[in-house]
């Protein structure tokens, strides 16, 4: 039988979806809005005692957050930075880092947990459907938003539950204190450290090579000797920090060859003491020319005249080397008569 002989109304699904003859039903709207589920009240909505328990739980979490923030600050102040403790299963860890991480994590977690518990148990959980609107909201939509905000604030019961409100505000206000405390780790405050060294009146000039104090007769004309202040021991915790500012070179020049009046007054029998730290980028000066009394920085060839106040005569250094005033004590040893009167080191004037 050809296809032309098959009746058009035989063996075809009914357009109306005849279920008795194998028809396929066609839904009127397969994407119909199912609507919102039926709202089921929570126990806190119907039992005031349960609501009070939830309120106390939220307040407790916010209070724990405040206590954790206080503990964070106390740990930062009280625990030494080099203290190591054993904590299972982490092993040996820094006591300070562990305490800071634990307390700050607890403070942030309790704020988040308290906010979530507050929202799930006390704030209104009625679902509200709202139509989309253009990005540029008209005035009536703006008014509705403000109305909804006011309604949300009312439903949150923040005005009627001062315990939650006050503890939340306290927790949020105290957590930023952790960040303020951490600013301390940006580095120690310089205070007067850039302007002062460990040189002081009465400190002996110690030969860096021999470790012994110097007498005037130990310094020969034309010689260059490097010294450090008495009491600064190599290998100590602060040695590198302090020697970077306190390193001094002494040279003996015939007094009649000294051109600068103050340099002559601050010397002893032609022995002058100047900072060894170049005023360009802080390299140690180590080259001395006896006939001209010039010292040369090997890094960028800044040259200073030690017979004329250590002024710069060549190179990129911006100012003269600071001079250390020296004398002789009752035992005949060379000693400092004070600290440098101007800051030591490179580019200080640019750094303020």
UniProtKB/TrEMBL annotation:
Molecular-function GO term, any one: monooxygenase activity
Rieske domain span: 266-335
GO cellular component: plasma membrane
Complex and partners: The cytochrome bc1 complex is composed of a cytochrome b (QcrB), the Rieske iron-sulfur protein (QcrA) and a diheme cytochrome c (QcrC) subunit.
Keywords: 2Fe-2S, Cell membrane, Disulfide bond, Electron transport, Iron, Iron-sulfur, Membrane, Metal-binding, Oxidoreductase, Respiratory chain, Transmembrane, Transmembrane helix, Transport
Region Disordered, annotated ranges: 1-32
Protein name, per record: Cytochrome bc1 complex Rieske iron-sulfur subunit
Gene3D superfamilies: Rieske [2Fe-2S] iron-sulphur domain (2.102.10.10)
InterPro entries: QcrA_N, Rieske_2Fe-2S, Rieske_2Fe-2S_sf, Rieske_Fe-S_prot
SUPFAM superfamilies membership: ISP domain
Role of this protein: Iron-sulfur subunit of the cytochrome bc1 complex, an essential component of the respiratory electron transport chain required for ATP synthesis. The bc1 complex catalyzes the oxidation of menaquinol and the reduction of cytochrome c in the respiratory chain. The bc1 complex operates through a Q-cycle mechanism that couples electron transfer to generation of the proton gradient that drives ATP synthesis.
Membrane topology: Multi-pass membrane protein
Ranges that cross the membrane: 58-79, 99-119
Cell location: Cell membrane
Signal sequence region: none
Keyword Oxidoreductase in record: yes
Family the UniProt entry places it in: Belongs to the Rieske iron-sulfur protein family.
Pfam families attached to this UniProt entry: QcrA_N, Rieske
